[in-house]
Amino acid sequence: VQLQASGGGLVQAGGSLRLSCVASGRTFSDYAMGWFRQPPGKERDFVACVSWSGRSVYYADDVKGRFTISRDNAKNTVYLQMNNLKPEDTAVYYCAAYSSSGFPHRHPSEYDVWGQGTLVTVSS
User: Fold this and answer.
1) What is the pLDDT of residue 53?
2) DSSP 74
3) Element containing residue 35 per DSSP (H, E)
4) Is the pLDDT assigned to residue 76 strictly greater than 90?
5) Rounded to an integer, what distance in angstroms lies between the CA atom of residue 59 and that of residue 68?
């Protein structure tokens, strides 16, 4: 499967953005999906993940209540709705996929496929 992320941009603190990640090449519902982010000069961190059917989701503590992950298997797309954005949310956001068993997976090494990243900048 190949992943193409989009939707990043510049937003003021308190604003919202929705990221999208479109998959192609394989059966999308064979993969659980996740979002990660990498702030400038820092490591890539887990943000959220969604199960194959979309019924189960899991969030990092610092985005819980502000971000919502969802997927539309008919459109081969996973979304990350980000509300009440903060300057510390500034990062390159990556979507990723894994086909192995178990949920949630929170470490980057557990993911098989990565998108190219989309930059989110939150100004104060």
Assistant:
1) 95
2) T
3) strand 32-38
4) yes
5) 8
